[in-house]
Amino acid sequence: MKIAILGTRGIPNYHGGFEQFAEYFSVFLAKEGHDTFIYSSSSHPYQEKEFNGVKIIHCNDPENKIGTIGQFIYDLNCIRDSRKRKFDIILQLGYTSSSIWHWLLPKNSIIVTNMDGLEWKRSKYAKAVQRFLLYAEKLAIKSSDYLVADSIGIHDYIKSKYKRDSEYIAYGADLFKEPNLDILKDYEVNVFDYNMLIARLEPENNIEVILDGVSKSAKQTPFLVIGKHDVNKFGAYLKEKFKNNNNIKFVGGIYNLEHLNNLRHYSNLYFHGHSVGGTNPSLLEAMSSNALIIANDNIFNKSILNDNAFYFNSSIEISKYVDKIIKKVVSLKAT
Questions:
Q1: Residue 244: left if φ>0, alpha if ψ -120 to 50, beta else—which one?
Q2: Which pLDDT value is given to residue 119?
Q3: Phi and psi of 173, rounded to 5°?
Q4: Taking burial as the number of CB atoms within 10 A of a residue's CB, which of 55, 82, 223, 264 is the most buried?
Q5: Helix 207-216 and helix 315-324: axis angle, to 10°?
Q6: pLDDT computed for residue 64 by the predictor
Q7: Using CA atoms, how far apart are residues 201 and 231, in angstroms rounded to an integer?
Q8: HEC profile of the chain
């Protein structure tokens, strides 16, 4: 079949969860013999026309010039381009800035939408924006031929609110089998002697709660914050707030999977604060790296981790975990 994926910044992944999924899935489709295309931002670092058998279509993306509204223009440009290519299937990843253009989607293509998380609940958005996102969610539900949920929580939400069926398709992650201690030297940390998180620096990912707990803990264990901190005001706010905590290090974005897997594998505690999304691929990668996970207490995380993690609701709980849990001891008990 001739298949297109839109709704991401493009591949290879330099951004987040959907991009990580798109990179894996598009390459898989191409290897299976499908004529696979993926839409990519004009500002993406990778400007080649093909990636591991996947054809890349770069579309104009003015977000870096005009801000968030640029996402809507980028999605519009992608959808307009899709009208002339006669795709059998178009897979949309998310709906935030694309569903308002649903009426432009090619009529002869099957539209499959992965519904993402509850975007309208994200605290970074003003009330008016949250209302719009709820409306965008409704448009995506109505305009899609098929819906995909990457979380049981999202699947149940769609069924309850919209009386629509969705296909629950879980993400996966490759098991990490090749530890490399030398990588830790690049980040100036030692085995089981640092804690970490990986996330976009946004309020709903509970990064401030986690770092508040870290700053209050009696232990001054090194803490790595992995995520682009120079792209929004909240990232700048966090760096300023915790600038006097010498154990907290804002590393920036890391997209080398070997480095990430080793950092997760050799960390003492791995914090996952995501609260309103579906299933985040980075959480599955942390599990496959044998990380000891402290996750935000919500249905999305619990449906994946079950009893195989500790959970938090406050910075006080974070402090207690940092002070009391040593991964080596827990690992011995588990054995």
A1: alpha
A2: 65
A3: -155, 145
A4: 223
A5: 50
A6: 87
A7: 9
A8: CEEEEECCCCCCCCCCHHHHHHHHHHHHHHHCCCEEEEEEECCCCCCCCEECCEEEEEECCCHHHHCCHHHHHHHHHHHHHHCCCCCCEEEEECCCCCHHHHHHCCCCCEEEEECCCCHHHCCCCCHHHHHHHHHHHHHHHHHCCEEEECCHHHHHHHHHHHCCCCEECCCCCCCCCCCCCCHHHHCCCCCCCCEEEECCCCHHHCHHHHHHHHHHCCCCCCEEEECCCCCCHHHHHHHHHCCCCCCEEEEECCCCHHHHHHHHHHCCEEEECCCCCCCCHHHHHHHHCCCCEEEECCHHHHHHHCCCCEEECCHHHHHHHHHHCCHHHHHHHHC
pLDDT attached to residue 95: 86
Please give the single-letter amino acid code of residue 187.
Answer: Y
Written as six digits, the tokens of 96 are: 């935030």
Distance between CA atoms of residues 251 and 177, nearest Å = 24
Q: What is the pLDDT of residue 124?
A: 63
Point out the residues of the chain with pLDDT beneath 70.
117-125, 329-335
Euclidean distance between CA atoms 213 and 209, whole angstroms: 6
Location of structure tokens 């448009």: 139
pTM metric for this prediction: 0.80
Longest Cα separation, the chain? 61
pLDDT at 202: 86
Residue entry with tokens 């588990």? 334
Give CA torsion, residues 90, 157, 292, 217, to 10 deg: 120
Q: What's the CA gap between 226 and 256, in Å, rounded?
A: 12
Query: What span, in angstroms and rounded, lies between the C-alpha atoms of 29 and 37?
Result: 10
